[in-house]
Amino acid sequence: MIGQKKPPPDSPDRWGQSLSHQGEPLVHPSNLFKQTEEHGFIHYEISNFARIGESHHEPKTSKHNLKYWTFAPYIGLGPSAHSFIEPARYWNHRSLATYLRQIEDGKSAMAEKECLTKTQRTIEAIYLGLRTTWGINLAEFQARFGINFTHTFSKPIAELEKQGMIEINKGHCVLTRKGLLFTDSIASIFICHDVSKWA
């Protein structure tokens, strides 16, 4: 994705394009946000909503999905299952016969493995972080990658703040509801930033 032309954040990404008719959204996202909230749901990731629990403090978010967005380690069991223990991602053989044969022979069922570079992990952290409504935790981002996010991306952040697309709030870089409509375009602005300045 690095080096690609940056799409201008002037037209909605998926929702605005797929739900539009003659330039007007069939279902405006702001109405979706309002209606889901009225029915006891919170918006916690660009395409995910969760019902608020009985305590009103613990929304019933998907623990399965959260592990991907927070880089939590996980182990997949069975044919084609994927695992992730940072910085390595690996997956098992797709064929059941091959998978069973490897296990019966006392061998690993792993088919392939890739070790993500710092740049790859940084890109994923930016893209996945911006998809969530809590955004990118700036202190954790710097501790993990040695990158001061607000300093490194000060110019795009300032421009996006002027447009009402993004905000720095309580140590997090978060997309506004308006910004969530342009998530892919905004993420590409950060991802296409000069990598030499990430250090």
Structure description:
It is built from ten helices and ten strands. It is α+β, with helices and mostly antiparallel strands and 199 residues long. It folds into two domains: 14-66 and 118-197, Arc Repressor Mutant, subunit A (Orthogonal Bundle); 73-115, no CATH class. The strands form four sheets. It has a three-stranded antiparallel sheet with strand order 5-6-7, with no helix packed on it. A three-stranded antiparallel sheet has the order 8-10-9. It has a two-stranded antiparallel ribbon with strand order 1-2. The longest helix has 14 residues, at 118-131.
The biggest sheet, with number of strands, parallel, antiparallel or mixed sense and barrel status, is: 3 strands, antiparallel
| SSE-based structural type | alpha+beta
Number of helix segments? 10
Total of domains: 2
Could you estimate the helical fraction of the residues in percent?
25-40%
What CATH architecture of the largest domain would you give? Orthogonal Bundle
CATH class identity of the largest domain = Mainly Alpha
Q: From the structure provided, what is the oligomeric state, counting identical versus distinct chains? A: single chain
Count of β-strands? 10
